[in-house]
Amino acid sequence: MQQPESGPRILFLSGGTALRETVRWLKYETWNSIHLITPFDSGGSSARLRDAFGMPSVGDLRNRMIALGDEWQAGNREVFTLVNHRFPADGERERDLRELSGLVSGEDPRVAALLPEARDTFLECIRAFDAARPRDFDLREAKVGNLALAGGYLLAGRKLEPAIERFSELTAVRGVVRPVVEANLHLAAELEDGTTLIGQHLITGRDGPPITSPIRDLWLVDSLQGGARCAPALSKSVLELIASADLIVYPIGSFYTSVCCNLLPAGMGEALWKSPVRHVYVPNPLPDPEQRGMTIAGAVETIERLAGHDTVDTVLYDPTWIGYPSLPDPDALRDLDLDCAERDLVAEDGRADPERLALALLELCD
Question: Region 34-45: what's the mean pLDDT?
Answer without folding.
Answer: 93
